[in-house]
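We were asked to recover a plausible sequence for a given structure. The inputs and outputs are reproduced exactly as logged, with field labels preserved.

PROBLEM: sequence recovery
POSITIONS: 368
GIVEN STRUCTURE:
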């Protein structure tokens, strides 16, 4: 298996734990262990008595039950727990596609969605979205990409890096096409439930199409990436079974403390989501006003979900040099779009509570 360098993680690996301000993070503001445990009266005592043996490979039953509650028509049996969405992407591709198959990946996207598809030996085509078209989904282009051996389509809504939710009619059309051509749809929904207006939430794909898999995670909308816990949910149990067999070779089972803490967080997810959405709704107008004040430098398609956006920047040199200079001079970490093969963009994040201060630092630098 050949894997190309993971440019996003390399860039973050270099700066994430030394930069003073994260102004590009895709995760919402996290909680401390004490804050999470305080959400239920007996949680501390239950954690203290947790047995640290192996857990069930598909996931602890009480956790699978908590996960199923995110969806409309799902039960615990429809969920497979994984140790992060990253493991979920790896398992889904490697368990379900291989050489001789064709995979279509929506881009720009989180890098592993593309590179892990390539690592299976399958042929991979990009379903490209473009800033110039408002990051629209071109359904005719998707239809043209489909071949007789197209086995899987990866989509991501709300999307990293654009922060834009797929239009409901586009999702319907994608499912219609996939059903007609018998294509598995892996829908990365790690930013679901953090729509800026909850009225715009799309149904999860597992509730709409039996041959689809919804990928979820504690990392983004719930702001708990340190739990390293995610899930794959589908009505197609043959797919779940194949992915479970693959999981026996990756992690066997997930971490027992993380399963416990995830189930707690999911039972209390409305409290966590309200807090995280509050931070996003406070920060978003500040970022919008900042970009408007600097419209000579930045333009964007306004995000409507998630804690991220992907403005275009007009600068002389490369965005990589620009971001390196900004972090060196101000301690503010932006993410250069070149790591997404989008060299005219930067990713900005507005899910952290110190975002206004980070923005001030960036503004001071830009106007100095
Ligand atoms: C779209 C998308 N999918 C998956 C992941 C991986 O998330 P996790 O922390 O659960 O591995 C990320 C992380 O940035 C992401 O943006």
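RECOVERED SEQUENCE:
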């Amino acid at each position: 298996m050949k894997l190309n360098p993971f440019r996003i993680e390399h860039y973050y690996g270099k700066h994430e734990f030394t930069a003073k301000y994260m102004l590009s993070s895709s995760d919402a503001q996290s909680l401390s262990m004490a804050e999470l445990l305080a959400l239920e009266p007996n949680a501390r005592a239950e954690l203290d008595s947790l047995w640290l043996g192996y857990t069930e490979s598909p996931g602890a039953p009480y956790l699978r039950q908590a996960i199923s509650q995110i969806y409309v028509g799902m039960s615990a049996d429809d969920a497979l727990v994984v140790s992060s969405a990253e493991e979920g992407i790896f398992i889904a591709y490697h368990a379900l596609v291989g050489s001789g198959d064709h995979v279509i990946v929506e881009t720009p996207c989180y890098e592993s969605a593309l590179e892990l598809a390539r690592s299976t030996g399958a042929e991979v085509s990009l379903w490209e979205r473009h800033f110039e078209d408002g990051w629209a989904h071109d359904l005719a282009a998707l239809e043209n990409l489909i071949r007789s051996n197209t086995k899987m389509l990866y989509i991501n809504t709300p999307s990293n890096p654009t922060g834009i939710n797929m239009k409901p009619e586009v999702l319907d059309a994608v499912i219609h096409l996939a059903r007609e051509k018998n294509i598995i749809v892996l829908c990365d929904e790690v930013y679901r439930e953090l729509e800026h207006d909850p009225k715009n939430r799309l149904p999860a794909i597992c509730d709409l199409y039996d041959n689809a898999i919804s990928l979820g995670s504690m990392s983004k909308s719930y702001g708990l990436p340190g739990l390293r816990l995610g899930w794959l949910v589908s009505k197609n149990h043959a797919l779940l079974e194949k992915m479970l067999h693959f999981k026996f070779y990756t992690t066997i089972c997930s971490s027992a403390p993380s399963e416990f803490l995830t189930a707690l967080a999911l039972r209390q997810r409305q409290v966590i989501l309200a807090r995280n959405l509050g931070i996003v709704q406070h920060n978003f107008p500040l970022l919008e006003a900042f970009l408007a004040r600097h419209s000579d430098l930045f333009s964007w398609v306004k995000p409507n979900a998630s804690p991220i956006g992907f403005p275009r920047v007009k600068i002389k040199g490369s965005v990589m040099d620009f971001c390196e200079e900004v972090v060196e001079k101000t301690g503010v970490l932006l993410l250069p779009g070149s790591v997404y093969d989008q060299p005219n963009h930067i990713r900005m994040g507005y899910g952290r509570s110190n975002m206004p201060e980070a923005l001030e630092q960036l503004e001071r630098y830009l106007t100095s």
